[in-house]
User: Fold this.
Amino acid sequence: MATGKRGARAPFTRLQAEYDGPTEFIATDRSQKPLSYTLVCPAGLPAGTDVRVSVGNVKAFSGIPWRLDGVELQDARGRGREGSEDGRFVIMHVVPGHWRELMRGGDTPAGGGMSGRNRGPVHLCTVLVTTALAPGSRIRFRLAGLLNQQAVDGYMEMRIRRQGAEAFETVGDRVVLRNLPGKVKRLDLRPAQPDEQGRFRVSAFAVDECGNPVTDYTGPLQLIGEGAEDVAEEVEVTKGGRVLIAVDAAADALPLRLHARDADRGLEATSGPLVPKPPTHGVYFGGIHFHTALSIDGDRDLAEAYAYARDYLNLDVIAVTDHAPLGLDWDHTVRVNERFLDEGRFVTIPAWESSNALGHANVFLRTAASTGHPGMWRPETSPSDNPWPDDVIVIPHHTSVNHPVWAKEDYWPNHERGEYWGSYDWTVANERVRLVEMVQARGSMETEWRDDYWGVGATSDTSSVRTALRRGHRVGFVAGTDDHIGFPIQGGGQYIGLTAFLAAELTRDAVWSAMERRRTYATSGMPIVCDFTVNGAPMGSELRLERGKPVRFEAALHGTAPIEVVEIISNDMTIWQAHPGEWDASFEDVELTAALSSSAYFYLRLRQADGHRAWLSPVWVDVR
Assistant:
């Protein structure tokens, strides 16, 4: 039971908050837990007082798995009945029923809205005391609830507002609600790309069915290299439920995949491919579209999210894209970015999301000093309408969302109805729109028609990635998650939306330069290592070719499962296809067309036997 602190002035000086219920939850357990939260009023409570119960860190698009079972007014002996029955208080606000209501905050019963920038807790119930309560009275809120499926700790608090006051005051301390991971479901091996000495780093850890790392996981892991007959090494998982494995393999032994086995629990996992670094660039993987508690619809501390990305996921690059974090929130974002920046190991990029009426886009800054900060947010327009400075890269995302492209004048009326954006407006060109998000948690945005094989679900006649290419936008491809609970590249217990950067080195400037030059590609969540050139030009390039000269491509593909199909797409058509059926596939000097008559783009996409996919940024060929 948690008891509150004393209030500030009479008759609030002796108010107490008593919590009776669980303080530990299991993220994989989806059964609501009964609890009660009671305001104790030793000196009574004046009429006109508002009393509110709120819960924190449950906002991230999971719905509100809470219910109000009743509000009871008790006397000093704990006897009572539903208080609203005798008119001594009225219920002003109850548990929200839709995620849009979660955006509402502030101190009014229902709150503000998306543009109001509320980042506070969710209000479960607000009552107004209409008749002064006698000394010793108690207001008991009976509730049932649970926290998110991701292991983010929550909290509850009791608050009161005096008659005529604008703000609520907290009674006592917040009640911390621990949200622990569930039982071990699978073993994960996440590799990073080799350092300058050619050494690889592989993170091994166990997760529950929702993808939460099981931090108390311990025990021995047997490691073997692909093709080896005997166990190469045994490592012990002892701290934090993870172990970092160093692999120093000879170049002629690569590509190599590391296999780990927990014999005691019957768990096995295989890493992504360990591939030597090409002479001109590395292939670095990152999560560059996710949200934290700095977003009005997100949960989890930013620093915790970055530490998870670095220490468990073993990512090379990270960028949080919270919704236009203004003022102190932006200052905090920049500070965390700079604190975690470790060039050569872990690159952080200052970024934010511009959520607009005519589409959403993420904005990536070359340096934190760029003027392309969240102060440039113009919600009633398209991100492409903004005069962005040259040191930002703008990346539209979920471009096809089953909505029409809105007219600008429709923004505020639609906003009032709880709709926050339409499909992306590709009629507007902007030089700083260098990339587009091909895939995220909502699926692929590749085509304007549904395509289950390639994961296209949300469609729009005017806003797909192919539409953008058809209109002449020369955009490369990235991937995102759009996760709102601080788990980069993860959603629903599965990996989603991993971006690869073909950068000269693992520094912020080199990664940003790769984005500027469109040297990127998208995967659905796995570190599939790819290289692709057209007539010797790398992905993202623009080249000129004499009329009638053949177009040829080369590719080296290293999967995380057998590669089922490889296709080349050009000007909306599949012009070449292969079915390797192997984990590694290479294609050399393959002729695509002998007589290119006009300009065209060419991009490669692949699908693995496990359903994971990759889309490599196009090469544009202009005929002279």
